[in-house]
Fold this sequence. Notes:
- By secondary structure, this protein is an alpha+beta fold.
- Helices cover 33% and strands 28% of the residues.
- The protein folds into two domains: 2-51, no CATH class; 101-256, Beta Barrel (Thrombin, subunit H), CATH 2.40.10.340.
- The protein has helices spanning 2-16, 20-51, 55-92, 268-274; strands at 102-111, 119-122, 135-137, 142-149, 154-158, 165-170, 176-181, 188-194, 204-207, 219-227, 234-241, 250-255.
Amino acid sequence: MLIVSFSLTLMGADLYWPAMGQYRGYLTLAVTPVQWFVDVPNRLLASMDESIGDRSLLLEENQKLQSDLLILARKLQRLESLTTENAVLRQLLSAAEKIDERVELTELIGVNPNPFIHQIIINKGLQNQVYLGQPVLDAEGVMGQVVEVGPYTSRVLMITDARHAIPVEVNRNGFRSLLVGKGTIDELLLDHVPDTADIKVGDILVSSGLGQRFPTGYPVAVVSEIEHDPGQPFAMVKAKPTARLDKSRHLLIAFRLEPEYPLPNFDLEQEGEQQ
């Protein structure tokens, strides 16, 4: 009863007391050890699986990784060539050179159990200069953006959540639209696509960079289904996320030169000295 009463008091304060937002970071700090403790079994199981792996399987996987490394090295050489060519063209056009975003590796340590809320928790926070609205990606594409930042952890809203939307464009022809979540982990919806728009099943949707929230050119989804209704001016266009939203554990967070939102002043050492 004491825990229930305390929980109701916190929910009421969060709803009706505006100053509660300033103290949410401190409450997140108190919950962080619990999140790490809950994740310990997963880490132990992963460690055990690696230690008892079959040697032949490991050798086969090693050969596959070496093959993939050669393929990626070939693609990297091609990308370096394209980057050089692009830089020459920018100089000819007197265009300003864009600096690539800085990225940092992070790890997923928690998932929201509510099936109607698509959120995850990562092990980076204010101490790592994480900020609100920061893009989160995996090896395949965009996963979502940071919506809550604590001292050592952050909460990420995934692109499939019904409250999320991201500006995208068709990689094939540059057609721009808004990709919104439907609340299902494997399906997204393109908003207000004209029935005559040049879009096909299999088209890759990449981030357009509009709104300056997500970096330009990152894969987001692949068009999976198009429904045309003769009586409607817009087509129903469904897409499948390219990111492995329910499988990826190691992720990337991309940094802009200047955060869109100012970083809160959260000095743990100073707070400890005051206490």
